């Protein structure tokens, strides 16, 4: 009877752990490890940018849908490196791919456009 209890506990633990190993709906392409490495060492953010660019290109070449937030993440990396035009392009792609992000992406785009307008109107 005692071994039956252990067997039942082992089986239920295996079932619970097996449920956690469900496949992802999206191909994240090592995003989590790139993000962790970039936060741990900010010098690796350039490698993350390059990795995301390559991953997005691969997804598009194989006609897979990019995971939610990937375009926005790449846009933010562009923004941090000073390329606000590329950031706006990525935020637009995020908004178009994921309509539920429209409010946030529109706000980000408006803020960047206002910032660029202020820069262009500033006396030199």
Structure summary:
It contains six helices and no strands. It has helices spanning 2-20, 31-40, 45-61, 70-80, 84-97, 102-121.
How would you classify the helix and strand content by structural class?
mainly alpha
Report, as a whole number of angstroms, the end-to-end distance. 86 Å
Beta-strand segment tally: 0
CATH level-1 class: Mainly Alpha
Low-confidence regions: none
Give the overall silhouette: globular
Strand content: under 5%
Reading the helices and strands in chain order gives: HHHHHH
- CA-atom Rg in angstroms: 21 Å
Tally the helices. 6
Annotated CATH topology? Serine Threonine Protein Phosphatase 5, Tetratricopeptide repeat
Indicate how many domains the architecture comprises. 1
* Quaternary form: single chain
Do you know the CATH architecture?
Alpha Horseshoe
Major sheet summary line: none
The residue-averaged pLDDT reads 88
The helicity comes to over 70%
Structure description:
This protein is an all-alpha fold and 124 residues long. It has a single domain, classed as Serine Threonine Protein Phosphatase 5, Tetratricopeptide repeat, CATH 1.25.40. The protein is built from six helices and no strands. Helix 2 runs antiparallel to helix 3, helix 4 runs antiparallel to helix 5 and helix 5 runs antiparallel to helix 6. It is globular and about 70 Å long.
